Amino acid sequence: MFKEMEKLTRDLESQRERVIMEGNQFIQFSNANVKDIRLREMAVSGIRNKDTFDEVLGWQKNMNKTINRAIRIHEKKYNGA
């Protein structure tokens, strides 16, 4: 039982390190590719302040709404819709 707990602990730590690494890659991507300053800052601060996967999923849902709203505004502005 103790060995199983040790393995689970190692697996959990490995997953945590992967999440941190992926978050850092997302931040680098955002800094390099997101031109809208407000949107970039929102993305970077959002990913930095999330501790659990559920929090990240909720944040992702909100970011999708924000991006879609920005797209609609842009389309109206430039397409005259």
How many E strands?
0
Radius of gyration: 18 Å
Order of helices and strands: HHH
Give the percentage of residues in beta strands. Answer: under 5%
Helix and strand content put the structural class at: mainly alpha
Principal-axes geometry comes out as elongated
Poorly predicted runs are: none
- Estimate percent helicity: over 70%
For the terminal residues, how far apart are their CA atoms? 64 Å
**Helix segment count?**
3
Oligomerization state of this entry?
single chain
Main sheet properties: none
What is the residue-averaged pLDDT?
Answer: 88
Comma- or semicolon-separated keywords:
mainly alpha; 81 residues; 88% helix
What would a concise description of this structure say?
The protein has helices at 2-33, 37-48, 53-79.
Give the SSE layout.
Layout: H1 2-33, H2 37-48, H3 53-79
Helix pairs in contact: 1-2, 2-3
How would you portray this structure in words?
This protein is mainly α and 81 residues long. Helix content is 88%, strand content 0%. The chain contains 3 helices and no strands. Helix 1 runs antiparallel to helix 2 and helix 2 runs antiparallel to helix 3. It starts with a helix and ends with a helix. The model has no long low-confidence stretch (mean pLDDT 88).
